[in-house]
């Protein structure tokens, strides 16, 4: 019998011990009841003005300075390592720390620059955080499983332990990025909160009564505290978008096959109906574009068999800006979907959508209502793909150590069930394709409604029914999973913050069903006060350039060029 | 108990009755023992000089005439309908005939041209034949199953019968193509020969002792007899390439997601590990390019959720021509793979590969040997995807009528087996991805061997171990299926014809294994004499433009600009 608690404690302590002594907090921070928000001024008190200047610059601003030699990569790396160390001590957001390697890598970049008088690549000196699915030499990948400690994806003596690197890691290094930490995830990856038996719970730094989101929840908390300018997460049901939204910054779920997932750890690997995708989260739209465009310049389709050969298309981005700038002010057209017909978002989310609609209209663009094919079909189909193997993969992972499954995971995986057969999986694949086709033709049909002669550019929709989940109260994922079923590109747009004096409970509202009732009853203005509120901008498949352009236009209009 | 024989006879007769009386052969053609080859002069005897001129022009030449008003669409349609009718009477290559609709559609195109003085689209007046998986209004889709007669994909009263059209059919019509027949397939589609209980066997018109190939075998025979300038087949294990090769003309298997499969009938629909792809077969490389480029101009990604947004890329094609035309004569680099390590091709195929190597060298390009990761891994994995459902789908289809399964299908599907579970399918998907990654890196590594600084442009390889299969002797598919596993783009290059005086049996050869022994012993120079011999040109994923450019360069050098 393995003592999983001892193993977990040892792992947690060994990671924490990598925080240099001068960066350790002398005393624990006040409890959430006293200090709900640890962002902004709270975390700044532990940093020098220069560190604050560096860490509150977005990725675009950082590379402007590092690729021109104005800022040293080493100083930038040290500032982010320090701030990440503080963030971790406040909200438990890191699984692996490799600050020494980062500072050493940054020094090499500075040496290169000194010798060659030019940067090594477009991301020269840019710190990039990675979700704990990426393999990085020198450190482990536990993905929150105690049973993965000391292994390679749960297997011992593979020869890959602490040596093998994921394809994107290789590419980021070639581009000049500095890697320094891996961020926390919920074990199994299948939750919108981040909790596991190694680091416990990753809290939302803006409001520590709430979740940081999941499954890229460590990225959410870390970037939310500006302990990273840009990082990479993954998304099979909302796992990039949810933490970006809960923490009030930008993120994009690209379509599958746009960016390289090759060589990453995963849950239910080989499930082929809805693929998990990798994508960036960051404090500005520009930062997302910067890293995507840089990665595509590496021709990842020559190193990842699942990546489609679609280079960055400046012209698709430009087409949007051209419409906006055309003489007389050209019109874009958006659709708005407040509810998916199953669950009504909580008041702050509804208000955020209203705000975005007003901004769109103020900018002179069109907004139509979105009345798509039934979303409950999408939600049901997406859920089926999560449980094809009846939980075999995750149960095997828990069994490695005997550790318990967290409550957040139990609804889907608590009981191991029969596996789907080939014919049952094929039936889901057909229904999925039919749904995609129907949805696509609905989207095409909006050209008759927009007045622009084109279908809508994107859909404005909630990504979750709440600003952020309360612990163990993330009961409905349908607002994010439909995007995965359709394989659409979707970015997060941070909009506002909860104001308990405005975002009051609608006592007249009659919930439509059990899901809706749970979401409705979990809203409490007192608890939510101050939390970030974000929505998603959903584009068609492989429309990353367009979605980012639209999101930037809206973010700028909302005064959030840098979140 | 359904009388499947009566149903099949009735269907066969009803289709044959659609051949206008003047086009019916007065007496049966001589048996294969007397008249092996029915192409060329043999079929020409039943046609007028003008009909011969039209039908022996390739698609590029046809649209040049029809889009400029030189040729009337109606005259072109009538000529091809006539020649297709003759072809069918010689080798059983059609499942559906709709000459009346075609001639009426062609007349409308002529009327349009007369009124607007311009063509309706780039395929204005081009006859296009379709494999019997396409749904076309007015006719059935049986896919060779007696149980599908009078149904929509085996289901009755769906409301779609004889009304619903596949996405590509809609697009072809919009481009101006004239649809006039659907071509024969082996029931289940899972064979390299074409046989079913409705039309019996589709023979190879160049050598009626041999198979026309499969599963797009009707396309192979029809285009081989020039009863169609260009047609569409599908390929999950070689089904476009095999009939193109066996009948000595061009064809391309695009990567999955390049062309729209939406709304087509299929076997084992929903199997998601290796997707069947749709692609063109035709008498010139230009004709394949013409139809692919035209279809992509329709933005099929807006109407098929599985199509990737990759427009036709002139620049990728041009990059190849630029290398060749650069001052001093730039070098291309090819790899050559004579055997896959499992089976040695028969003497005529080996000779064809040697001929291509000599042509490449004569053109001043480089040839290196291909020593890839084990092909037996690829062959085993591809086969597993064929039997995920244990044969459930095909057994259900046979059970609709009680008709027997042909011998060609029995090795894979004779006995119904247990279905794969979700975990077993996931394991195949992972092994497939790992194999793809390994193969891709091997390909990348050839940049060190070519002398051009680039990896090889393409691989020259056999597509089958024989020039064409002898009936019931297609025992090894591994030479085509590895391309499907890797999702590579691959075109057929017709090279030569069997010459019994040159292509003698190598009596010293010691077969490597049981597969190899069967292939070796099935070669008989007397039987094969005169048959077409073709090979495949294999490019990386989504390299259709490049593969076609390379195939055109080689085809031109072989004197086969039009096959």
TrEMBL record, chains A, B:
Residues 75-548 form the Amidase domain. Pfam families: Amidase. Belongs to the amidase family. Substrate binds at residues 189, 215, 236-239. Keywords: Hydrolase. This is amidase. It catalyses: a monocarboxylic acid amide + H2O = a monocarboxylate + NH4(+). Its EC number is 3.5.1.4. It comes from Amorphotheca resinae ATCC 22711. The active site is at residues 131, 215, 239. It comes from the Eukaryota. The lineage of its organism: Eukaryota, Fungi, Dikarya, Ascomycota, Pezizomycotina. It is an enzyme of class 3 (hydrolase). GO terms for molecular function: amidase activity. The keyword Hydrolase applies.
